[in-house]
Specification:
There is one protein chain. This protein is 24% helix and 38% strand. The protein has one helix at 46-64, and strands at 2-7, 11-17, 24-31, 35-36, 42-43, 73-77. The strands form 2 sheets. It has a 4-stranded mixed beta sheet with strand order 3-2-1-6, covered by helices on one side. Strands 4-5 form a two-stranded antiparallel ribbon. A hairpin with a 6-residue loop joins strand 2 and strand 3 (24-31). The two termini are 21 Å apart.
Length: 78
């Protein structure tokens, strides 16, 4: 399987795909808390992003079951 991670400004999405047919095997998403400054700048707290990533991966692992050991690659878009 291949894992895709999309780390956006307000959301984190992860999905597992079958490399042969491209079908989605499992997916999870988490809304990320964002700090906003008075000038409108938005920032994420790195430790919290890591915690949410662990949570999302745990959900994928539960959904994939035994296939989780088949993960051959991970891609990240941020």
């Amino acid at each position: 399987m291949l894992i895709g991670i999309d780390l956006g400004t307000t959301g984190l999405k992860v999905a597992a795909y079958d490399p042969d047919g491209g079908s989605c095997v499992a997916q999870a998403s988490v809304r990320l808390p964002v700090q906003t400054d008075s000038d409108g700048q938005r920032e994420q707290i790195p430790g919290e992003v890591m915690d949410w990533l662990v949570t999302a991966f745990a959900s994928l692992g539960e959904q994939c079951g035994d296939r989780w050991s088949e993960v051959a690659g991970i891609g990240l878009a941020a």
